[in-house]
Amino acid sequence: KNQVEQSPQSLIILEGKNCTLQCNYTVSPFSNLRWYKQDTGRGPVSLTIMTFSENTKSNGRYTATLDADTKQSSLHITASQLSDSASYICVPPRNDYKLSFGAGTTVTVRA
Amino acid sequence: DVKVTQSSRYLVKRTGEKVFLECVQDMDHENMFWYRQDPGLGLRLIYFSYDVKMKEKGDIPEGYSVSREKKERFSLILESASTNQTSMYLCASHSASGFQETQYFGPGTRLLVL
Q: What is the H or E stretch that residue B72 is in?
């Protein structure tokens, strides 16, 4: 069973607009929740790392939220730019090295 | 900056061939990982290593083996490549200071098995 569900699977937004990506997970928390950005043809790059005591964390125009009680996280992109076109992967906490990666949300920003 | 490099960006192999994928990291990290990434499935862990000559199976180790003879280098081996091993392979590393560490990924190797 997939322990990480991300939605939507893909979305298209106009440059300058905002969007929010969702991540629901079922694993029991131990370590941190991470969001990664993966450009086409590249490896994932870390955007944010949140402990399960944090509710929100920002990295420039990216803001991640976490509700550890409901096991939900979101990633909000503000004033989107063409360079935000990528896949965004949620990695919820687990109690070992075997991190569970979501399938990702593919964001396409159009001019 | 941490740098994780992979020996090839693209590879085309035939069924039954032995395939070596090499990964090198330059930050003296203890932990190294091999994942494969397929559309709609996310990254899945094949093997990881927490020290030289140490290895542990991930979620999908069948058909793969690994080698860690030096701390900076972690190799993934497909003993006899099959078409269902066509995928993007990603190597990652992080330090041993805890599960809180960020994993740093290489650029990936896109393998096509014909």
A: none
Q: Using omega within 30 degrees of 0 as the cis cutoff, is the peptide bond preceding A8 cis? A: yes
Distance, in angstroms, between A64 CA and closest chain B CA?
16
Would you call A98 and B105 a contact, using CB atoms and an 8 Å cutoff? Answer: no
Q: Could you tell me if B42 lies within 8 Å of chain A, comparing CB atoms?
A: yes
User: pLDDT tens-digit profile of B51-78?
Assistant: 999 999 998 999 999 999 999 999 999 9
b/e burial code for range A51-60 (CB count within 10 A of at least 16 → b): ebeeeebeee
Rounded Cα gap, residues A40 and A19, in angstroms: 19
User: Could you give phi then psi for residue A95, rounded to 5 degrees?
Assistant: -100, 20
What DSSP state is assigned to residue A68?
A: T
8 A C-beta contact, residue A17 and residue A81: no
Q: Which residue in B has a C-alpha nearest to residue A96's C-alpha?
A: B99
A73-90: pLDDT as tens digits: 999 999 999 999 999 999
DSSP bridge partners of B80 = none
Chain B residue nearest residue A52, CA to CA: B100
Q: Does B8 touch chain A (CB under 8 A)?
A: no
A92 shares contact with chain B (CB less than 8 Å): no
Cα gap B1→B25, rounded to integer Å = 11
Q: Is B111 an 8 Å CB contact of chain A?
A: no
